[in-house]
Amino acid sequence: MVSDELPEIKIPPPGPRSCELSARLLAVESLAFEARRGARAATSGAEQSPIVYASGRGSNVFDVDGNRYVDLTAGFGALVLGHAPNAATEAARAVMSDLPLALGDVYASELKARACEALASLFPERGARVMLGLSGADAVTCALKTAVLATGKTEVVAFDGAYHGLSYGPLAACGLAPGFREPFAAQLGIEVTFAPYPSRTDSHALEASLAAVRAALKSGEVGAILVEPMLGRGGCVVPPASFLPALRSLADGAGALLVLDEVWTGMGRSGAMLACELSGVIPDVVCIAKGLGGGVPISACIGRGEVMEAWGRHGGSAIHTGTHFGSPPACAAALETIAAVRGGLAARAARVGDAFVEKLQEVRLGGVAPWSARGCGLMVGIELESAAEALGVSRSLLARGFIVLTGGKKGDTLTLSPPLTIAEELLTAFIPELVSAVAEHRRSAPGPRESW
Ligand SMILES: Cc1ncc(COP(=O)(O)O)c(C=O)c1O
């Protein structure tokens, strides 16, 4: 295994080479990204100019100016085995020189057969069937289509704060912020009811959430309850233990499918291969992506055999497929990742993640908890006082050599999803840097807890 190292910042980020490359990119890529940086700078008063990555190794990223960082984001949670080289990228690289592409759903490769068998075996019930894709949004799209075919019903229940990808089906169910959906509302088509997502720490939230789901199911037209077992982009919110079992029984009572979006929680990230194992709930369909390829794009929609039979009853054509779906290199990568996560990485994520969250929760400044830390496995949210503070602190952490993202419905949470292989010393080293970044921010923008 590649050994992880502490950060080394030689030039304050972003250095000159990062600035030059970012300016070149800005001239040609979507203006939405610069608009977001501008909005974030206005909210936080903190500089948002990006660094540019040169390479990655284990849990470290090197930028084009020669700085070494600790990567607590792992490519939005996808690099579960760390940056290259890892078993998945090496397997994909080897297959790339033999068979970069077979012929999708017409003539498959041996690797596709083996990957689908391995994926079907991840499902908590025998007889599951698998449909492959490239992205999380592909897997969720496939799940939404499955619900229509299997139930004949087109409405969907989704949740506030949820994120399922931005292609049209998943976008309609995006509860993170209405702004994602609004410009395209006229083209979205799917009738989606959003229920509140309950947090484990709020005793009234569960009943309010389930009441909203029950009300939506009364239409009799709901074919899918689409839910993340734990909110990812929504701020690493962990629901009460009885949430998924309650949704299971509501779905059963209404003849709807329970679709679990495990794009972020799956592949060991939550401390189990699939987060649904933690609650003992068997979904009708589960979506996996991100970590599945260990950095190589591949996703899967896996469903109970009985539910997936609906695809075989539809008119004799391959109505959901894609040129690159199930490519041999991606399947080779998925096989390696599944083996590694099964081989102990999920259990490691549970142990290391629990210890990390515990240490974060123990921190007190002047007797006051400086944040609220939560998580499951190596999916950790650190809720600060505001979006402005989260953005300011994330930039200060970058300058100290730690890469983090901000998330949550209000943008006030640092969301950490490091490689499942990360050396524990790096997580330990992060905590004093976080303390000092938060303290520095609060000194320069004193708020209600000036006492410390
Ligand atoms: C829970 C969840 N579902 C779906 C997606 C969409 O995945 P992708 O960006 O690969 O389309 C994401 C991405 O962050 C996610 O977190």
Summarize the structure in words.
With 452 residues, this protein is of the alpha/beta class. The protein has 2 domains: 117 residues, Aspartate Aminotransferase, domain 1 (Alpha-Beta Complex); 254 residues, Type I PLP-dependent aspartate aminotransferase-like (Major domain) (Aspartate Aminotransferase, domain 2, 3-Layer(aba) Sandwich). Helix content is 40%, strand content 15%. It contains 16 helices and 15 strands. The protein has a 7-stranded mixed sheet, with helices on both faces. The chain has a 4-stranded mixed sheet with strand order 1-2-3-13. A 4-stranded antiparallel sheet has the order 11-12-15-14, covered by helices on one side. Helix 4 runs antiparallel to helix 14 and helix 15 crosses helix 16. The longest helix is centred in the C-terminal third of the chain and has 35 residues. The radius of gyration is 22 Å and the shape is globular. The model has no long low-confidence stretch (mean pLDDT 96). Bound molecules: pyridoxal-5'-phosphate. The site of pyridoxal-5'-phosphate has 15 residues, from helix 6.
Search tags:
452 residues, alpha/beta, Aspartate Aminotransferase, domain 1, Aspartate Aminotransferase, domain 2, 7-stranded mixed beta sheet, 15 strands, globular
Q: Which strand order do you get reading across the main beta sheet?
A: 4-10-9-8-7-5-6
Basic shape: globular
Distance between the termini: 42 Å
**What is the percentage of strand-forming residues?**
5-15%
CATH-defined architecture of the largest domain: 3-Layer(aba) Sandwich
Number of domains: 2
Can you tell me the CATH topology of the largest domain?
Aspartate Aminotransferase, domain 2
Bound molecules: pyridoxal-5'-phosphate
Structural class call reads alpha/beta
Uncertain residue ranges: none
Instruction: Give me the CATH superfamily of the largest domain.
Output: Type I PLP-dependent aspartate aminotransferase-like (Major domain)
Mind summarizing the main beta sheet?
7 strands, mixed
Report the count of strand segments.
Answer: 15
- The whole-number mean of residue pLDDT values reads 96
- Look at the structure and give the CATH class of the largest domain: Alpha Beta
